[in-house]
Design brief:
Blueprint (H helix, E strand, L loop, with lengths): L5 E14 L2 E14 L3 E5 L6 H8 L7 E6 L2 E2 L5 H11 E4 L11 H11 L4 H14 L15 H13 L5 E5 L7 H15 L5 E5 L11 E6 L2 E7 L4
Parallel strand pairs: 3-8, 3-9, 6-7, 7-8
Antiparallel strand pairs: 1-2, 1-4, 4-5, 9-10
Helix pairs in contact: 3-4, 3-5, 5-6
Length: about 230
């Protein structure tokens, strides 16, 4: 991928945890880059380091060694305050459990990142409603999460991840709790509304049913990237 513009560059990333006096190495010299305009899937068995890696990429965790740059920014070099501001501007999250606030409507849930970034609530909710329309939930803006199906809740979560215009979307098992058809609808939605030349997606998944949507698949095992496959080699 010579001449490719990169959203993420990880070089020799090492991360260890101290668990009850025992040191566990979660990441062992990870080298991985994610291109602008790319949907990369991160796969592998439970406990292999996938969640730790996306947490480093998203600036939630600091690595012990190595370099992680997101849009050219060394995240570890930022103060906590500046790292939080960088994430708020550049990174969106779609969580496996949706993490919607049960007492807030769909529009209110989607507007949360905008309100956190300082936008007035009424304007934020209008922008949220516009995005919910784009993801097919224009008639459900005032619905509470408990009034929505699993697929609808996932679309609200996707809208929340996109509403502030981040350039990197990080998804943790976005389809694992969904049936085949709904999972494919969610992936088509992500490709349609989230992915373009200036934005990248990294998706952690065990769901082989959605591998066809990836530009590349990075396989992890025991804290290592063991193989990266692209469309031509799958």
């Amino acid at each position: 991928m010579a001449g490719q513009a990169w959203a993420v560059r990880c070089q020799d990333i090492v991360k260890t945890y101290d668990t009850g006096g025992q040191t566990v190495r979660a990441l062992s010299g990870i080298n991985l880059s994610i291109a602008l305009g790319e949907l990369l899937m991160l796969v592998g068995p439970s406990g292999c380091g996938k969640t730790t890696l996306i947490s480093v990429i998203a600036g939630i965790l600091d690595q012990d060694d190595g370099l992680c740059e997101v849009f050219g920014q060394n995240l570890k070099a930022l103060s906590s305050k500046h790292k939080l501001a960088f994430r708020a501007e550049n990174i969106g999250f779609v969580f496996q459990a949706y993490n919607l606030l049960p007492a807030l409507t769909a529009a209110e849930n989607v507007s949360v990142p905008l309100v956190i970034n300082g936008m007035k609530r009424r304007l934020a909710e209008r922008k949220a409603a516009d995005l919910l329309e784009q993801v097919g939930l224009g008639s459900r803006t005032t619905s509470l999460p408990g009034q929505l199906s699993g697929g609808q809740q996932q679309r609200v979560a996707i809208a929340r991840a996109l509403v502030h215009g981040p350039r990197l979307i990080v998804c943790d098992e976005p389809t694992s709790a969904l049936d085949h058809k709904t999972g494919h609808n969610v992936m088509n939605l992500l490709k349609e509304v989230a992915l373009h030349e200036n934005r990248s997606l990294v998706i952690v998944t065990h769901d082989a049913r959605i591998f066809e949507f990836a530009d590349r698949i990075a396989e992890m095992d025991d804290g290592h990237i063991v193989q990266v496959r692209d469309r031509q080699t799958r």
